[in-house]
Each structure stands twice: as C-alpha cells, then as structure tokens.
Specification:
The protein has 251 residues and is mainly β. 8% of the residues lie in helices and 67% in strands. The two termini are 37 Å apart.
C-alpha cells in the first residue's frame, strides 16, 4: 500500500510539471490532446456491514445487458500533454448507477431483495517520463494521484447500509503505446496504488485509430477501476468496468 508520504511526493511532481512549459515534439505533431468519451460502465462487488451483532453482506453484479438500465448518468474527459520527454495525464469521470441485480439476503428468517445505488467521482492526474521505442510507439511510466468520491448505499424495505468516503491515493501508472500499421495502435493503461483506500487499481486495454488529415483519434476499449476500502466496520470491495469509446482532439 502506498502511504501518505508517497502521495505528497506525487503531488510535488505534478506541481513541478505544471510549471514546465509545453511544446511540440521534433516531428511537429500535437502536444495536447483532449478526449471526451463515453464509459458504459457497471459496478460489481460487495458491501460487508459489521456494525450489528451479525455480519450482513450484499453481493451485486452488473453484466453488459444491464448497463443501459442501471447507468443513470455519466460524463468522462481525458487530457494528455507532452513536454519534451515528459508526459502528463489527467482524467475525470462522474457517474451514478442503480443496480437491483443483487443477491437476496435473509435476516431473521425473512428474505429481502436489496438494490445498490452508487454516486461516484473519479479524478486522476499523473506525470512521468516517455521512452520513445519506435516511430509510432512509446512507453510512459508515471506517478500521480487519484481522487475518489464514493457513495455506495444498499437499500431494503427494512433499512439500508451505506459507505461513503473522499479518498486520495498515490498511484503508479504505465501507459505504453504500440503502433502497428499506418493508423492503428494498441494503448493499454495499468495503474495501482493506495493511501486512503486499502487498494485501488486500473486496467484499460484500448485500441486507437488516428486519421491523416486532422490528427483526430478514435479510442475504444474496455476499462476497469477497482477499490478496496474499509471504514466504521463497513467494508467495500467493488469495481467499475465496461466498454468505452472516445474522440480525441489535438491542438
């Protein structure tokens, strides 16, 4: 787990990079890219409530067929810049889900069918060094900070269990890009960290198509962001995951 001192170091690195002027690379290509995207995510996981005399656990899942019904709203944006060999990255997601595909629970001989509601804001910022490995290929190794505002509530006819938190975690991130052909590239993202949460990680394999005329990028893939967190005898263990598609604008 990454401690708070590591989070402070990551914030200091981000501050230094923010003061560095941004300029285009030697090939004259773009140095700033803004990508709004749609993340058709669902939530899988569990809430374990140990506040009473007995432990109550809520297990829930969300398959692809339920995403359109369970995703109430979402908005996502990604920013990438390059300054010499230094790469900078920022991303924000805001969304709400309501999931009634939850395992039934039995308390005192009575069975209930709960539903899970989540309200979430995720924001990440990272900076690091870029190694160029080919004409259209590179590897970015970065350190940064992820902020998560999490509100998860399980509701039944007799009551509710909820967990909410504002979490700040230090993260280590790797974002390689492997070009193949003239227009296509494979650009996965891996990140892991901790701090206020016990563990957070991200896995996001993505394919990128770049056109010839306007330096636009179409990005699509599958993204998972997971958290493990415990507070006040309530344990949250869940992941947001689903397909994503975005259009990047260079300037």
């Amino acid at each position: 787990m990454i401690k708070r001192s590591s989070i402070g170091m990551a914030i200091a690195c981000l501050a230094m990079q923010a003061a560095t002027p941004v300029f285009a690379g030697e090939d004259g290509k773009c140095c700033v890219r803004l990508t709004p995207y749609y993340w058709a995510m669902g939530i899988d996981g569990s809430i374990e409530d140990n506040r009473g005399a007995a432990t109550t656990q809520y297990d829930f899942e969300n398959d692809l067929g339920d995403i359109s019904d369970n995703l109430d709203y979402n908005g996502s944006l990604m920013l990438e810049t390059i300054s010499g060999h230094w790469a900078n990255y920022a991303q924000i997601d805001v969304f709400q889900t309501t999931n009634d595909d939850v395992d039934d629970i039995t308390v005192g001989g009575v069975t209930f069918s709960p539903d899970i509601e989540t309200k979430t804001t995720l924001a990440s910022a990272a900076t690091g060094y870029r190694w160029n490995t080919g004409e259209r290929s590179w590897i970015d190794l970065m350190v940064g900070v992820r902020y998560g505002k999490l509100d998860v509530e399980a509701n039944t006819r007799t009551g509710s269990a909820d967990g909410d938190a504002d979490l700040v975690d230090g993260i280590i991130m790797m974002r390689p890009r492997f070009g193949f052909g003239r227009h296509w590239a494979f650009s996965p993202t891996w990140a892991i960290g901790g701090g206020d949460s016990d563990l957070t990680y991200e896995i996001a394999p993505e394919f990128v198509y770049t056109n010839d005329c306007c330096n636009l990028e179409i990005r699509f893939g599958y993204r998972t962001v997971a958290y493990e967190y415990e507070e006040d005898n309530v344990e949250l263990d869940f992941s947001y995951s689903g397909p994503m598609v975005g259009l990047g604008f260079a300037f």
